[in-house]
């Protein structure tokens, strides 16, 4: 994900835990009063089949004794860790809950006999893990946010590795999307702990503008592929686009805010990048446009159930009194520490549109794309402009490809990188520079018929994990 807009939207259900989790062993004895309801429900669901627990780590690794937080992990019961694989899910700010079900069902379906001992970790501020938010714009508050990124996650994971496997035993690491970035960070910081590394849906080396351009281009290409399977949807999508071109077309969301114009398309844009969601996506489109007109009642039902809940509206300003913590954390994830990029905004989107038109793709042909609501509402990223003066003095800490390359060679670490042909989040174009830079040091595999969800849909991934 390479835009603030994307991250705020897709994962708007950000759980910023401000409560104290109690340390738990691998039993189900934990205090339900100090964890979220979602966490309690999840533990009740898995406790028959999974061991789980928390490890206590510094909130801020610059000051390890100052304040502690608790990080949640779990793994299948009776696991002997014959083939331990730490899994880092995507996001940012998305819990691991649900991933284990995906993996377990596919292991059975694909008839994978060899052990894959997945160890799942709720990254800071997600699921059952803690990340206490500091308010304000003091240097301490802003500096502490960098530890909510991959810089903190890999250190947390190291503590879990030592607890479960011992000081010296290595494990395999596997990351999807943002989790793949975490894997590269792990290769940079703790190569001595890695037996093999696997990434899906992220590549090192894509520049800011190239990445943003290729993302919009990919949304155009994948839309055409989607329509080729269901040609009747083209006219329906065009009808929906025409209807939503009016930015005054607004509907009430589940949290009683308003969703207007093209921003209503946003959930559908992201479903497009997930191949196994295409049937659902087509069903939604047919429901919204049952004949030649948009069904406004169906549109209201869709919006009340969609991920638009809690989504900051593009035609309004952020309230820094109430939303500063989320805005700060989101900006941090969007680029200030983990990615060398800037969010989509009006200037960037106009530049992308001009570049596409120079290559023969007219703006009108882009039925699905992230820039439509930004341009429609003349969106200016107030979060970036507000925080940049404070963050510019802190410096950045992106993964250094040179160090990663050196560690792959020096520690003889096999690295696998997977890309999906229908991935409109991190399209195949992103991998060109990575392939050129790392050459044979990384084994690149391209899955033509899956998207950003190919990490669990491709049998080859599971086979590689057993090697």
Structure, explained:
With about 475 residues, the chain is α/β, with parallel strands linked by helices. The protein has 2 domains: about 15-205 and about 400-465, Alpha/Beta hydrolase fold, catalytic domain (Rossmann fold, 3-Layer(aba) Sandwich), CATH 3.40.50; about 210-315 and about 345-380, no CATH class. Helix content is about 45%, strand content about 15%. The strands form 2 sheets. It has an 8-stranded mixed sheet, with helices on both faces. A two-stranded antiparallel ribbon has the order 7-8. Helix 6 (about 180-190) packs across helix 16 (about 400-410). The longest helix is centred in the middle third of the chain and has 22 residues, at about 210-230. It is globular and about 65 Å long. The model is unreliable at about 1-30 and about 310-325 (pLDDT under 50).
Helix content: 40-55%
CATH topology of the largest domain: Rossmann fold
Low-confidence stretches at least 5 residues in length (pLDDT < 50)? 1-29, 309-325
Shape: globular
Strand order of the biggest β-sheet? 1-2-4-3-5-6-9-10
**Quaternary state of the chains:** single chain
CATH superfamily of the largest domain: Alpha/Beta hydrolase fold, catalytic domain
Second rung of CATH, namely the architecture of the largest domain = 3-Layer(aba) Sandwich
Task: Report the count of strand segments.
Answer: 10
Q: What's the main sheet like?
A: 8 strands, mixed
Series of secondary-structure elements, N-terminal to C-terminal: HHEEEHEHHEHEHHEEHHHHHHHHEHEHH
Structural class: alpha/beta
Mean pLDDT: 84
Domains, number: 2
CATH first level of the largest domain: Alpha Beta
